[in-house]
Amino acid sequence: MKRFILFFFFGLILHSCQTNYTTRNMEYVNIKQFNIDSTNIRAIHAISKDHLYFAGSNGYIGYTLNEGKSWHIKQLNYQDSIIPHFRSVSLNNSNLFALSIGNPALLYKISKNSEKLVYIEHHKDLFYDSMKFFSDGKHGIAVGDPIENCPSIILTSDGGNTWQKIPCSQLPKFEKGEAFFAASNTNIKIIDNTVWIASGGKKARILKSEDTGKTWTVYDTPIVQGNGSQGIYSIDFYDKKMEL
Prior knowledge:
The chain is mainly β.
């Protein structure tokens, strides 16, 4: 554990001291405002300066291909009576995936001409926070707050067409009050076949898998923790050894 903490801070210091960083002089900042009615945008996925996807409350998803000059927006609902509220959106193989919070959890695969419900789960305590895909285009992962003292983690190995939940017997145990934060998927980081997930609340820990999510190791961190608003919201890596 001490070794992990030392690597954590050594990586942070080394990354901040890179000598090849070139400063940029900002002459002005142009802030664009986008008004999209009837939804609170809770997840974004930027592909380039022109191309951005979003998902939000009341079943709304959308995207722009021209820096927000025009938007393609649609509203999804389940069985005409359940309106999903999305916290996660991710792109894989030209298909958009949107995952809702609450009960039932609904995961949609959206292509240019259709929307398909590819995963549904029922439990009164469900709350899925984040979702990402691996670079191979086949594997993906979505994570949610704990049920029965373990995190909710679902995996796909066929590009998102089908998803399976990992049983609690194969996952680290969570303490009461430990959970994840929905922060536009930034509490998940993927490099090659390795995935890291950050927790918060009662505990601030890092979950790590080196086999696309099949097996897991958990590490404590010195990040401030102890109540619902503390812990780790977002993580990123310079490479596999240097974490921010």
